[in-house]
Amino acid sequence: MIWEAELRAAGGTELRPVLPGASLPVLRRWLLLPGLGQTGAYWAPVARWLAADGIALLAADVPTLSTSCTAPRGSYDRLIELAARLADAAAGHGACAVVGHSAGAPVALLTAAATHSFGCRTAMLVDPVPEHLGLARTTARAGSPALVPGEAGLADPVSELRRLYPLAAQPTLRGIAAASGSWGGPRCLPARPLGSPHLATERARAVGEFLAATTVPVLVLGGALSAMLPGNLARSLADRAVHGTYRSVAGAGHSPHVDNPRETAAEVTAWYDQVIAARPGRVP
Q1: How far apart are the C-alpha atoms of 31 and 99, rounded to whole Å?
Q2: β-strands 218-223, 95-101: how paired?
């Protein structure tokens, strides 16, 4: 497709279409920031539903982009620097929304705001980590499986995905496994957070203040069964935003796009269309 050729010509692999070679016409492009341990392959099932509405997902290689940042690791300044780089890429390809999952949510929020004057209309935070946005929890977080060094690239990737995503349908996991080959497989999570605890605390406080101040419409989309983001915390995050909305995906945990891709696609498109209808402008 022409727009994919333009994307490649722009240089680098920082932005990639989640569904390369899709035959349906592209009416809108959304920038995707996958969470830790995931790549664009995990969004391929959602991307197929979005493609039917003319929406193409462009996944960012956040780890690669972050290596060129110069601000201290774990700092708010580094987050701002990364968001500026992503904003340039998003604006260059006409992205009109930014989607960030889990740890990708804070930089998605900042990126959407940075490109707002260039046509980016919304930020969609998919099961964000509440502490990353300055919201402390009052109860301990329930444990959940996570990728650790040595567990990626097993002989049966579908079985490994089943361990990590017990709520997902088998065809969805097979689709992710098939798509993962071109993305280099799953990413291992760091053994401990990068940067100092003080920087992480200051970053979370600053992101929380930014959430409360930005006028960009924000969707907080949580999995109804998520241990990471219980419904009360998701509602609190949405309430902090000037134009915030909370929606949930039934039968889904921390990765709604894996556990229930069809409803995830339906929720984000319905909310986006509602925002655009209420705020008409030149960007579709």
Answers
A1: 6
A2: unpaired
Confidence of residue 76 (pLDDT cuts 50, 70, 90): very high
- DSSP letter (8 states) at residue 150: T
Q: Which pLDDT belongs to residue 194? A: 57
User: Is the model's pTM score more than 0.85?
Assistant: yes
Confidence band (pLDDT; 50, 70, 90) for 281?
A: low
Give yes or no for a contact between 227 and 253, defined as CB atoms under 8 angstroms apart: yes
**Residue 23 pLDDT class (50, 70, 90 cuts):** low
CB 203 within 8 Å of CB 177: no
Q: What 3-state class would DSSP assign to 76? A: helix
**Measured CA distances, 25 to 7, 49, 158, 200 (Å):** 16, 13, 31, 42
Q: What is residue 75's three-state secondary structure?
A: coil
Largest Cα span, the chain: 50
Strands, E assignment, 102-143: 122-126
Strand order, beta sheet including 55-60: 15-17, 55-60, 28-33, 95-101, 122-126, 218-223, 244-249
Q: From CA 51, how far away is CA 23, in angstroms rounded?
A: 9
Element spanning 6, H or E = helix 2-9
What fold, for 2-18+26-135+156-278?
A: Rossmann fold (3.40.50)
Contact 32, 55 (CB under 8 A): no
